Amino acid sequence: MNIETRALVLFLIIGLVAGFIASVLVGGGGGIFRYLLTGVIGAFVGGFLFEALNIDLGIQNRLLSQIVTASVGAVIVVLLARFIA
Question: Which end of the chain, N or C, is more open, meaning fewer C-beta atoms within 10 Å of its C-beta?
Answer without folding.
Answer: C
